[in-house]
Amino acid sequence: MFSSFLTRAMCQNNTSSAPPKNETPQPQQMGMVQSLVAGRTIAAALTAPTPSEGDSCEFGSMHYFALCGLGGVLSCGITHTAVVPLDLVKCRIQVDPAKYKSVFNGFKVTLREDGARGLAKGWAPTFFGYSAQGLCKFGLYEVFKVFYSGLIGEENAFIYRTWLYLGASATAEFFADIALSPMEAAKVKIQTSPGYADTLRVAWPKIYQEEGLNGFYKSLVPLWMRQIPYTMMKFACFERTVELLYRYVVPKPRSECSKSEQLVVTFAAGYIAGVFCAIVSHPADTVVSKLNQEKGSTALEAAKKLGMAGLWKGLMPRIVMIGTLTALQWFIYDAFKVAMRMPRPPPPEMPESLKKRLQAEGKL
């Protein structure tokens, strides 16, 4: 079943069937895919391309999806680890607002009690957890985007492209959070429970001893509640913002922009998407922090204890953190694609078939 899914995801023709006896065999295009860029069919060459031949892999191939996953590991692992100090203060504001009254006060109290090294608490589970999440998030997003577009057809993939982005990103994040949850549980314990554990190798056995496997996955549902809306906004808002920036802001077509100019657009679109991501997912993020701090509590109990005002504590540092984080993630991911000479289709355009149909109906 899984191999069948991958075959459909890559839109590959079945090469096992022989041509009719009286029919001249036609050369096959291996790994043919229809990209989300309307009117473009991308087929792999029969031989592996050399560096001078342009792209290093075929769009929609297993090689392509694997590289996308690796780009996700780099973009998420590096960026989340880089903002651990801000994330630590944000989590502490969420679970103990009486002690950590603001971002600056949170840094001050943490430095006074734990020293500069205290700001790096939780870096190991952050790095490993979000690297695993990035692998699934970006890699599977590309898989499901191609797979769903193949299911609904080229015209519908353009007309309903926002829904396509939302659906592909939601499905990818569902699996990404399963990979993230154990490390997220350890990270929050280290950061918000003084004296519990200072390192991952101490926190993991302790969580398992006290709560069993449930200790690693008890916050999975609120994690889905936080991360799935976040990721849906992250990918759909980014894709549409890039489209709008090239249409209304950038003074020349994308094809005439240099790689550096394209990466600037990527960063800007990523930051805009990040601001919306932070707002949409913040209440669930607060519940996750509170839930992992307190043993035996449920998501509903944590939300009731926090109250409406408490659910929005730490929003401003999270907007700064997530905005910067999302922009850097997209920048690193796109820069990785450039460095690896991966196919980078331009924003989608209306398919010729749809254009002709709308013209015939007088709607264009």
Automatic annotation (TrEMBL):
InterPro entries to which the protein is assigned, alphabetical: MCP_dom_sf, MCP_transmembrane, SLC25A3/Pic2/Mir1-like
An annotated GO cellular component of this protein is: mitochondrial inner membrane
Q: Which Gene3D superfamilies match?
A: Mitochondrial carrier domain
Annotated membrane topology: Multi-pass membrane protein
- Membrane-spanning ranges: 315-336
For the region Disordered, give the residue spans.
1-28, 344-364
User: What is its subcellular localisation?
Assistant: Mitochondrion inner membrane
Q: In which ranges do the Solcar repeats occur?
A: 63-147, 161-244, 261-339
Q: Which keywords are on file for this protein?
A: Membrane, Mitochondrion, Mitochondrion inner membrane, Repeat, Transit peptide, Transmembrane, Transmembrane helix, Transport
GO BP, sorted A to Z: mitochondrial phosphate ion transmembrane transport
Which terms does the record give in the GO molecular function aspect? phosphate transmembrane transporter activity
Question: What Pfam families does the entry give?
Answer: Mito_carr
Q: Where are the compositionally biased (Basic and acidic residues) regions?
A: 352-364
**What is stated as this protein's family in its record?**
Belongs to the mitochondrial carrier (TC 2.A.29) family.
Q: What does this protein do?
A: Transport of phosphate groups from the cytosol to the mitochondrial matrix.
Q: What is this protein called?
A: Phosphate carrier protein, mitochondrial
Task: Specify the species.
Answer: Asbolus verrucosus
